[in-house]
Amino acid sequence: MKTLALWLAMIPTNALAFTHHAPDNSGLFVWIFLGFCAAIIVAQLVPAILMFVGMMKGMFGKEIVSKN
């Protein structure tokens, strides 16, 4: 029973003893956070580009209103 308790106590400590870190010490959660930030920026960039294209078409496109 003591051996089982010892093994169960060592499992989390072995997982936290990982020593091969990236040179900038960024872990998995840092990369997940940066990916989430990039997804937010891309999600806001797509409608902005579509609106810009629409404004350019409105400024330089053919006139839609008839002059009757």
Main β sheet profile: none
Strand content of the residues, in percent?
under 5%
Task: Encode the helix/strand succession as letters.
Answer: HH
Which structural class fits the helix and strand makeup? mainly alpha
What's the gist of this structure?
The chain has 68 residues and is mostly helical.
3D structure, described in words:
With 68 residues, the protein is an all-alpha fold. It has a domain at 28-59. It is built from 2 helices and no strands. The model has no long low-confidence stretch (mean pLDDT 77).
Can you tag this structure with a few keywords?
0% strand; single chain; mainly alpha; 68 residues; 2 helices
Question: What is this structure's SSE topology?
Answer:
Layout: H1 2-16, H2 28-60
